[in-house]
Predict the 3D structure of the following.
Amino acid sequence: MDEKKKAVIIGGGIAGVQAAGAINGMSIHLISDEPYLPYYRMRIEEIFSGSTPESLYMHPQSWYEEKGIELINGHVSSIDRESKIVKLSDGRGICYDKLLLATGSHARRVELPGTIERSFVLRSMDDAVRMRKELENADSFAVLGGGLLGLEAAYSVASDFHIPVTVLETAPYILPRQLDKESAEILSAKLLESGVTVITSASVRECCGDYLVLANGRKIPASVFCFSIGVDPAKELAEGAHLTVNRGIVVGENLASSDPDIFACGDSAELNGRTFGLALHAREMGSAAAKAMMGECVSYKPSEPTALLKVGGIDVVSFGTPEGEKKVETDGEKRRTFFIKDGIIVGAVLLNDKASMMSVKAMIGKKA
Ligand SMILES: Cc1cc2nc3c(=O)[nH]c(=O)nc-3n(C[C@H](O)[C@H](O)[C@H](O)COP(=O)(O)OP(=O)(O)OC[C@H]3O[C@@H](n4cnc5c(N)ncnc54)[C@H](O)[C@@H]3O)c2cc1C
């Protein structure tokens, strides 16, 4: 009898589920250590406004059954590459022919002197559920980090809990990777109208009761606070299995690791010296890894990311890099900033002009 080859996927995030849904002709085991069906991680803030975990599920249980995907709840503790078995911490072992590491990333924290009980990261459904409970009795909130996730968390808490919210950013302005200074200042002013105070060039020294204390001695009310200072790829399983790792699990354009039967995708993978951290790439890589696991020839090229944010009623869209000569066009509330290097448009930021998104995206990389 011609037995089906076994595809085992570790991680039930976007990358893992995308791959599981795209694999044909193999038996599929999808292992996840979270006590929920796979859910949309980027929507977990909706828990603050009363959404249930179930409402964030990517698919109902029946979808997995119809696709022949066996969902396994458990934590993989090691990979035995010689016997081709993944071992779960409860003692179970699962054989594979092709293995996919879609283990995502860990949110970073820093050690701050003082109380840490009410400090959070916002990475998982459980983080959001716990944070919501604390916020119900909080009288102030602060976010360390003025990146996309930090601003979205700050805005959600200000809207849902109506308490003073402060964003503390070490750079001279928020979203330094996506915006130029002027656009960032317009956004900060809008955030203030929504109850979010932005403090830039801020360095936190310690946590003292219901306050965070900055290096300059200023006290920021924060009965609950959240770190939003980036993520680190979850590569410990790969390290334990002696695969090549750097910042993430090193893969080639066919998404294979240094072991040709083990692939990696999503936040945990590193391709050409680059790690990702965006749902867009997790989804793309999941599809590409599925093809590679089925034996197809794959040469994955990541799309250029578009950052999309809605805060304080402002749509912010950013493409490419905010570097080079600046050209600004305004039309009432709409503001388009183009960044030009050697006569080529290398980046753009749109404020309140989501309608131009596709046409402006098409201009990136073209002559100004
Ligand atoms: C609050 C928030 C908002 C975001 N907003 C956006 C956005 O607007 N746009 C955007 O592009 N991106 C956004 N992101 C980032 C996006 O969610 C991630 O890039 C994406 O989830 C990565 O998908 P992944 O499948 O690689 O990993 P993950 O979604 O992290 O999934 C990995 C899964 O693997 C599990 N796992 C890890 N190790 C093991 C193990 N040993 N055994 C079993 N299971 C294991 C983890 O528990 C997890 O469930 C946001 C992220 C957060 C937290």
Notes: Residues 10-16, 31-34, 41-42, 44-45, 75-76, 102-105, 122-123, 149, 234, 237, 266-268, 277-280, 282 surround flavin-adenine dinucleotide (CB under 6 Å). The longest strand covers residues 334-341. The chain has a mean pLDDT of 93. Helices lie at 14-22, 61-67, 125-136, 148-161, 181-193, 236-240, 279-293, 357-363.
